[in-house]
Amino acid sequence: MSDPSARIISHMNNDHQLSLNDYVVIYGQTDFEKLIEDSVQITEIDPEHIVLEFKLQNLAKVQNLALYWSDAQEYENITVKSWSDIKGKLIAMAKYCADKRGLAVKKLTKVEGPSILGPAAFESLRMYPQWALMPLNAYDPNIISRAFANDFLLNKVSCFLPTSVFAFYHYVFEKHVSKLIAAYIIGHLIEIVFFTRPILKKHRAPTNVRVKWYLLNMIEGFPVLLRLKNLTKD
């Protein structure tokens, strides 16, 4: 029979770095800013205790955290009496530590673009051609109107459109397009600062993932928040 401690240590060290970091920060009262994140490893584990080693910035000496299960506070109050209790205890500890840090247990690494089957699909997808159109109209407000007037096919298509469409287009996308662009930019920045950024921070999204979500948010607006909430819901 294989050694249960070796199996647990291998699994945790290879697949649960976030939880190990959280254990050291909460139970070891370690400053996360000084912690070298990928240095945290379990070195010993048995039905009585767990031992972790880790490194801190500007300190050459390896640090150790020895923790008896009875001292490891968590919400479920699991008592470890045998090897079979350790998995549940580690999971409960991970949830407790993440909650104490105001973070999610898992890291968000996925970026999800718009989809015709996704939430607020029309609102998402319409913003891409709209962002292509608005800078053109800001540069030359009559560029699209001239295209319809000078192209035979576009001119024929325009005959079937109600006059209210042209009135709306002229008022919004020709007369006030600069104000519309400014309103979108300000509104989307507010969404990013007060909604998107906190969600990504809580779910520990890496920098490159955050940048992609911010870019999507700048283009689409609120539909990005709906997709984020779907991805991060428990």
From TrEMBL:
<keyword id="KW-0472">Membrane</keyword>
<keyword id="KW-0812">Transmembrane</keyword>
<dbReference type="Pfam" id="PF10615">
    <property type="entry name" value="DUF2470"/>
</dbReference>
<protein>
    <recommendedName>
        <fullName>DUF2470 domain-containing protein</fullName>
    </recommendedName>
</protein>
<feature type="transmembrane region" description="Helical">
    <location>
        <begin position="152"/>
        <end position="169"/>
    </location>
</feature>
<feature type="domain" description="DUF2470">
    <location>
        <begin position="5"/>
        <end position="93"/>
    </location>
</feature>
<keyword id="KW-1133">Transmembrane helix</keyword>
<feature type="transmembrane region" description="Helical">
    <location>
        <begin position="181"/>
        <end position="200"/>
    </location>
</feature>
<dbReference type="InterPro" id="IPR037119">
    <property type="entry name" value="Haem_oxidase_HugZ-like_sf"/>
</dbReference>
<dbReference type="InterPro" id="IPR019595">
    <property type="entry name" value="DUF2470"/>
</dbReference>
